[in-house]
Write a structure and sequence with these properties.
Helix content is 56%, strand content 7%. The protein has 162 residues and is mainly α. Helix 1 crosses helix 4 and helix 3 packs antiparallel against helix 4.
Length: 162
């Protein structure tokens, strides 16, 4: 009787083993699919960055990398919003210089500089003073905590208060 039951027990063990191997394969294939999907996105991003870098170097670097007055350097451009740079290339101050670029190429340059796709309408507004600082009077010297300023006969004297 024990001999007859052994094959059924072995079949159950094999069946459980097969199911666990199959489950592991399915999980592994899902992980591989995600990895391949992410790799495709990464390759597309790298290609887009390469295109943006090439265009920047061909069209923009002549001014932005040489210290040309009024041309912010590349690190400074990276601090700007993607919408601000896109607006400058399409409708703003850089539209003449960027007229040879297609809309897709302009987006590639923006992505290269900022790492983000341009969001239309997103433009950074300059910081503004608020509160008492908003009432700045250029004719009045600034108030310094712990010091006084005296202006006599065109000379300015700063005295530290104890």
């Amino acid at each position: 009787m024990f001999l007859e039951a052994a094959p059924a027990h072995r079949n159950q063990a094999r069946s459980r083993h097969f199911r666990s191997v199959l489950t592991a394969c399915v999980a592994c294939s899902r992980v591989m699919a995600v990895i391949l999907l992410l790799a495709g996105v990464a390759l597309e991003t790298v290609a887009s960055d390469a295109e943006g870098a090439r265009l920047y170097n061909e069209v923009c670097a002549t001014c932005h990398e040489t210290g040309m007055p009024k041309a912010p350097s590349r690190p400074m451009l990276g601090f700007m919003s993607s919408g601000t740079i896109h607006h400058a290339l399409t409708e703003g101050i850089m539209r003449v210089q960027a007229q040879q670029l297609s809309p897709e190429q302009k987006v590639a340059v923006v992505e290269f500089l900022t790492g983000r796709k341009p969001s239309l309408g997103e433009q950074a507004s300059p910081p503004a003073c608020q509160g008492e600082a908003e009432l700045f009077d250029p004719q009045r010297p600034p108030a310094l905590a712990g010091a006084s300023i005296t202006i006599t006969a065109g000379r300015t004297r700063v005295r530290l208060l104890a």
